[in-house]
């Protein structure tokens, strides 16, 4: 991570829009953010679940995902519909949705998280195909953006490279699953410190307790 002086600690959230556990974790993450308030700066990274996949979902994978979605829904209370998973030839490529989130972060810093939640809900609860750029642009329009302008940015080499950079941050830090939460803070001597505070689905109260303990250490 960058070594510039931090005004406040950063909570690095590594997620993927098309990660079912991240969708299930969303209510817990909302609770965490409410508890932290403005004591930390939130930084969302698109971790890269299945980027650049080119093979259509197989019947075996479709069955596995349907069972997984049902299990996560029962655990978290989040609504899942089978939606596009049942479409013949559907390709579960997570790169476009990741790039859309990175694009939103570039165009309107601070809106990337609510935008991710919006397209995530559209996919899991609404059955929308968020691998399609037009669908992603439609949801960007809901945040006040001109569809064409958003698509121009989304399709640019700059955003493609920025998305790869997000994936590389996750890889460099050894993030091997989503959701993952890492606190980035600086010690008194200015040295950067990265502390894992949440890995995989977890309850908000436990993660908040972890964060409070770390923050209390100064």
Characterise this structure.
By secondary structure, the chain is an alpha+beta fold. It has a domain at 173-201 and 210-218. 49% of the residues lie in helices and 12% in strands. The chain is built from eight helices and four strands. It has helices at residues 20-36, 59-76, 95-107, 112-124, 133-141, 147-154, 157-172, 204-216; strands at residues 10-15, 41-46, 180-186, 192-199. The protein has a four-stranded mixed beta sheet with strand order 2-1-3-4, with helices on both faces. Strand 3 and strand 4 form a beta hairpin. The longest helix is centred in the N-terminal third of the chain and has 18 residues, at 59-76. The protein is globular, with a radius of gyration of 17 Å. The mean pLDDT is 95.
Layout of secondary structure:
Blueprint (H helix, E strand, L loop, with lengths): L9 E6 L4 H17 L4 E6 L12 H18 L18 H13 L4 H13 L8 H9 L5 H8 L2 H16 L7 E7 L5 E8 L4 H13 L2
Parallel strand pairs: 1-2
Antiparallel strand pairs: 1-3, 3-4
Helix pairs in contact: 1-2, 1-8, 3-4, 3-5, 3-7, 5-6
Characteristics:
about 10% strand, 4 strands, 8 helices, single chain, alpha+beta, 4-stranded mixed beta sheet, about 220 residues
Write a compact overview of the structure shown.
By secondary structure, the chain is α+β, with helices and mostly antiparallel strands. The protein has eight helices and four strands; from the N terminus they run E-H-E-H-H-H-H-H-H-E-E-H.
